[in-house]
Amino acid sequence: MTINRSDVPVDAAQPDNPVLTLAVPTFNRRRYLSDLLDDINAQEYDTRRVEILVCDNASDFDVAAVVAASLNNKPYRYSRNERNVGWSLNFIKCIREARGTHVWLVGDDERLLPGAIRRVVEAVDSNSQVGLFVLSAENWDTGLPEQTEFRNYREFIGHSIELDPFYCLAHTLISTNVFRKDHFNLEFARKKIGTDYCQMYGLMASLGDSPVLVFEKAWPLVHVREARAPFAELVTRLVEKQVGYLKYVGRKYRKPKLVRYAAQFLWSARRYAINSRISALTFPIKEAFKRRWPRYFRILKKTLVSLRPK
To answer: What CATH number should be reported for the domain whose range is 2-223?
Structure first.
């Protein structure tokens, strides 16, 4: 059940048919949330075309007051769950309640760089045929040397595999994806709760042959905070779920090479997890892992923070 707070001082000029909903799922991150909302408040964009939605997953502090203080000159909607429903269901709720034709989920611990919202709106306006926009991040392995449009996700995956087999994992970071709401399968996403990638499964299930536009590295729109969890803490659980997602994408888009990479990596990760239990070997095994999968190691370290218990 959702409580829509009517006592929050929200600007009455809510957009009727926004082209973009920027949705922020949040739980117990007062300082980080305040930083992100300050970034949004400082952005220049047409408030008639952009909806800001904050979905509070029953935090222990007054999120409504923080939102009202930070978004003091922007219209927004705020919704609070009566209880913590888990981060996956809160993600799905953001997408379900979004009024925009396109949805941009932004993690409550990320930062938006100047001009980010305006540039996303301009990209959406200029590329109405595109189903998925993959944004670049300041310190995350997304983006290409130059902005590139692919005919569909299969072509994008084929291209990215040649660059790096784990490239398609990089853009599972929620804040780097903007997608058409009608290209998201809410029911399939619900079935994938517990995989840590329900939002990606829901998108992949309905993206179909829609074009994909990948932004260039030289113009990042998002700043990702550094991971704050030790590497070995969740590695086996995380890798198994990531491998499951990679296999799904590889099979759905007929890319057997990606499925093989996923299987090889799972074997390497399990071997690492076993050896890391022997304290004397933890450091050399970790270094060997880094040498074998250097790019993935960087992605993995930054991803761990999203899996901390909520």
So the answer is: 3.90.550.10
